[in-house]
């Protein structure tokens, strides 16, 4: 169902950046969530009748899972630990689109046994729900995907991304490439680096073409990100984590992030508002403090534009007096 996503170029702080437009993979199923969930489209899951997931009510993965479920004709239950009043009154973005696709979004705080699960991590809550809900007694027909698609299945689609990047570099006869992408769970960066290393070796390109994967944390800091890597891949495959010294709190609105988002959107490419501003701020810092020679920089646009429908109004309510004039 996917075509190869295009690569476009833009100017960034005096550098040429190549943008891998995974946001354009497919009209309804795009970005890194589409890469992560690609596996389920290309393997036989016809025994599944119900998909269970969990995460934030505005998450990009909520929307992508709802597309997957609709396409496959699965019931889709999605657990959230919180839904804001505002979103309930004004459904929009990923949340509204997922509901339109038939997602059954369940607030765990409203479950009859909410007291038993209060304070538990969402992944554990889902474990608990799986065991205590009669609808889920028949495990054979269930597919349960961890928050953010952090699971080994994600590697299938990310392997495809890796091979597209290698092909692109070969066509350009590029010998040194730096790939940059901001991380949440780190699943995409981890599998991408592992796949690039393995595929380059398999193609016997290892000394000829060097591809380095750089990423940054947008959630919980560098140690947390390394710990996430450790659950998915061997240490030899860890991508390089870079930082600009700031501690970013996921989803927190900041003037710096908003300014950076407006700057990069002037390229004509719309980026998303949760991960990309942090990615570009850290990349900017990296480019200021490191000299690259004969190296192309490829930034992976990981989609998530639908989420801007909820994030942008929040930003505008907070910083409406500071929109760049241009
Ligand atoms: C989910 C997401 C990420 C984070 O991906 P991980 O694999 O969890 O690191 C980054 N950017 C966008 C736009 C996303 O939707």
UniProtKB/TrEMBL annotation:
Listed GO MF terms: D-cysteine desulfhydrase activity
Top-level taxon in the UniProt lineage: Bacteria
Transmembrane regions listed in the UniProt entry: none
Endpoints of the signal sequence: none
Residues with the N6-(pyridoxal phosphate)lysine modification: 33
Keywords linked to the UniProt accession: Pyridoxal phosphate
Magnesium as UniProt keyword: no
Swiss-Prot/TrEMBL cofactor(s): pyridoxal 5'-phosphate
Family matches, as InterPro entries: ACCD_DCysDesulf, TrpB-like_PALP_sf
Family, per entry: Belongs to the ACC deaminase/D-cysteine desulfhydrase family.
PANTHER family to which the protein is assigned, alphabetical: 1-AMINOCYCLOPROPANE-1-CARBOXYLATE DEAMINASE-RELATED
Name of the protein: 1-aminocyclopropane-1-carboxylate deaminase/D-cysteine desulfhydrase
């Amino acid at each position: 169902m996917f075509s190869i996503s295009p690569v476009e170029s833009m100017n960034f702080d005096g550098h040429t950046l190549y943008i891998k437009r995974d946001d354009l993979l497919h009209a309804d199923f795009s970005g890194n969530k589409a890469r992560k969930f690609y596996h389920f489209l290309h393997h036989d899951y016809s025994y599944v009748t119900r998909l269970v997931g969990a995460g934030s009510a505005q998450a990009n993965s909520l929307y992508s899972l709802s597309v997957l479920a609709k396409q496959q004709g699965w019931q889709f239950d999605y657990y959230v630990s919180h839904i804001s009043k505002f979103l309930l009154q004004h459904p929009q973005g990923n949340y509204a689109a997922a509901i339109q696709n038939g997602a059954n979004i369940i607030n765990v705080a409203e479950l009859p046994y909410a007291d038993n699960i209060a304070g538990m991590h969402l992944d554990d809550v889902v474990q608990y729900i799986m065991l205590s809900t009669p609808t889920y007694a028949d495990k054979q027909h269930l597919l349960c995907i961890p928050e953010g698609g952090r699971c080994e299945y994600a590697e299938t689609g990310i392997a495809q991304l890796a091979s597209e990047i290698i092909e692109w570099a070969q066509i350009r006869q590029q010998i040194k490439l730096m790939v940059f992408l901001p991380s949440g769970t780190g699943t995409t960066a981890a599998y991408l680096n592992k796949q690039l290393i393995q595929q380059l070796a398999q193609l016997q390109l290892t000394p000829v073409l060097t591809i380095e994967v750089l990423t940054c944390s947008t959630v919980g800091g560098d140690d947390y990100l390394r710990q996430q890597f450790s659950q998915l891949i061997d240490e030899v495959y860890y991508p390089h984590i870079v930082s600009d010294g700031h501690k970013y709190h996921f989803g927190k609105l900041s003037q710096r992030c908003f300014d950076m988002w407006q700057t990069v959107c002037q390229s004509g490419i719309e980026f998303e508002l949760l991960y990309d501003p942090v990615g570009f701020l850290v990349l900017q810092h990296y480019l200021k403090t490191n000299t690259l020679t004969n190296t192309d920089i490829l930034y992976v646009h990981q989609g998530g534009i639908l989420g801007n429908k909820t994030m942008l109004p929040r930003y505008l309510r907070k910083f409406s007096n500071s929109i760049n004039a241009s």
